[in-house]
Specification:
The protein is 21% helix and 35% strand. It has 556 residues and is α+β, with helices and mostly antiparallel strands. The strands form 8 sheets. It has an 8-stranded mixed beta sheet with strand order 7-6-10-4-3-13-16-15, with no helix packed on it. Bound molecules: zinc ion. Zinc ion (ZN) binds next to α4 and α5.
Length: 556
């Protein structure tokens, strides 16, 4: 998603020991290492296969009626199924169609299962109540009631009985009933639509089916006075199932005249990302004016953008390309654990810049990357104090920071420079195809990039993802000798010592440029002598914006 960065931070550093002690966790035979790979099953022994939700939204207010059929597979020795559900009243639970006992707390429903360590179960929960979060019930700026799901990161539980964690993806069907005259949109394909009743009691029922597994944080419906504007079919040669991707915008009727606006670029964006990575992974793509608290939220097949963005001159292209990129990264390949959220936000940030490169050229792309780098270097709260893979932050909204977004994106940019375009994109395609419609951790990305490139990347990943900060250095040069140039690079060591390739542009008095690359090891001072054939007027460090670093260059 695109979010405004929060500047109020919660206390942390309570368990700093974890930064220095690598430990192994053994749980139900599932062993993982903690150096950025802190994996504990959220609901051990349970795998949700499918949700079938029925939601009745009212004419006004926030009182909903819901019914959830949750199909689960038991994968270990567990004696109960626990679903997350905050606050709402549960009137009935059935297990495989028989009325079942259940235990209710304010945040969970627990249903005992028959003894065993396997089997499939279908649990149905009937519930109702006034929703306070997750499904945002509010009047739009013209006083009309609207209802939009907004679940990131773990707010599905405020309206959907679910295993509310990104590690457990499932397919989802929606049956949504709303007052006649409202438009309904949800994940997946529209499978049926009907109207019942007459006059003021008339209701519209709409059914949707998402046939690919997605995490609960992407499961949404939108209900409101929306007009659908067709963007046509795109990526026809690239779509899965050899289908085109139908795209449309759902917009408030009074804004229909402003369409398509920047959404005119959406077909090209889907085509381009499809050509870089893989066919578009879902059935359709809707862009929806909504009530999300974020600037944009990448719900699978139904991207929700803030109402304010539509009303203040339109959604910008950067947000549109960012949310579209998430359909591949975040939605189809989902971070299994929250500390790895850069696999979602860093990718969306970088692919948005890649669309700039494709649509506006190399210099616009370079300017984008320079802006991203500057945002990283000016951050003193997250980048300077925490690694990108942040296993200490417990307030999930705090993970929406310049580590997950900008630094994650710039790390991909550096990997591209390190491996070259061919190996880099082949590695991303390998990573995507291995984990499509599943989940991944950072080590999975590294494994794919290493396998395709034949290069070891353990030091790169540890240095950039498991430590705070970035290199800072002074570059001093002198050309006292006629045929050589002395260059010394002194690292500040503020965030420790880094190892990296430093690219330099040697500019002669006529403005001719020669590029050289110096391999800087993780040591305080590195001195090199570069052969030159004429005099050098100026040296530019990192002329193509390929290194995340703060660099001062001076002639001695
Ligand atoms: Zn995002």
């Amino acid at each position: 998603m695109r979010a405004a960065y929060r500047d109020i931070k919660s206390p942390r550093n309570l368990i700093d020991m974890r930064r220095i002690i690598a430990f192994a966790t053994a749980f139900l035979g599932h062993v993982a290492f903690a150096s950025g790979q802190d994996v504990r099953p959220y609901r051990p022994g349970i795998d949700v296969l499918d949700y079938a939700f029925t939601i009745d939204v009212p004419d006004t207010g926030a009182f909903i009626r819901g019914d959830a059929v949750v199909t689960v597979r038991r994968t270990g020795r567990v004696s109960a199924l626990t679903l997350d559900l905050r606050g709402l009243r549960v009137s009935r639970v059935t297990l495989n169609d028989a009325v079942a006992r259940f235990m209710r707390t304010d945040s969970t429903i627990t249903v005992p299962l028959p003894a065993g360590n396997s089997g499939r179960f279908r649990v149905r929960v009937t519930y109702s109540g006034t929703v306070t979060d997750g499904l945002i019930a509010r009047k739009d700026s013209l006083g009309r009631w609207t209802y939009f799901g907004d679940n990131w990161p773990n707010r599905a539980r405020f309206w959907l009985p679910s295993v509310d964690h990104p590690s457990d993806k499932a397919t989802v069907s929606w049956t949504v009933r709303a007052p006649r005259g409202r438009t309904i949109v949800a994940n997946g394909s529209l499978t049926a639509s009907s109207i019942t009743g007459t006059g003021r009691r008339a209701r519209v029922t709409s059914r949707w089916r998402e046939s690919q597994p997605i995490p609960p944080y992407l499961m949404v419906v939108g209900v409101g006075p929306l007009t659908q504007v067709d963007l046509g079919e795109t990526a026809c040669g690239l779509a899965e199932l050899r289908r085109c991707v139908p795209q449309s915008v759902y917009v408030a009727p009074e804004l229909k005249g402003t369409m398509p606006g920047n959404f005119a670029e959406a077909p090209g964006i889907v085509e381009y990302f499809g050509s870089l990575i893989a066919p578009f992974p879902y059935e359709k793509l809707a862009h929806v004016q909504s009530a999300t608290r974020y600037g944009g939220m990448e719900n699978a097949t139904a991207i929700f953008y803030s109402d304010a963005a539509f009303r203040r001159g339109g959604v910008n292209t950067g947000t549109i390309s960012h949310e579209i990129a998430h359909q591949w990264f975040g939605d189809a390949v989902t971070e299994r654990e929250w500390p790895h959220v850069w696999l979602s936000e860093g990718f969306a940030t970088y692919f948005s810049a890649l669309w700039t490169q494709k649509s506006r050229g190399d210099s616009a792309f370079k300017a984008d990357m320079a802006r991203i780098r500057d945002r990283i270097l000016e951050d003193t709260v997250d980048v300077a104090r925490k690694p990108v893979i942040d296993t200490l932050t417990t307030e999930l909204l705090d993970l929406l920071n310049r580590n997950s977004y900008e630094k994650g994106g710039f790390i991909l940019h550096m990997l591209r420079a390190e491996l070259g375009d061919s190996a880099f994109f082949a590695g991303l395609r390998d990573y995507y195809s291995r984990h499509k419609h599943g989940t991944a951790l950072t080590a999975d990305l590294r494994a794919s990039l290493e396998a395709v490139s034949g290069k070891r990347l353990d030091a790169f990943f540890a240095q950039w993802l498991e430590r705070p900060g970035y290199p800072e250095m002074d570059v001093r040069w002198s050309d006292r000798a006629v045929t050589s140039l002395e260059v010394s690079i002194t690292q500040s060591g503020r965030f420790g010592l880094f190892s990296f390739p430093l690219r330099l542009a040697l500019v002669d008095p006529n403005g001719n440029v020669r590029r050289v690359q110096v391999s800087v090891p993780a040591q305080l001072v590195t001195s090199v002598v570069l052969p030159v054939t004429g005099s050098v007027a100026r040296i530019d460090a990192d002329p193509d914006v390929q290194l995340l670093a703060r660099i001062n260059v001076a002639r001695q």
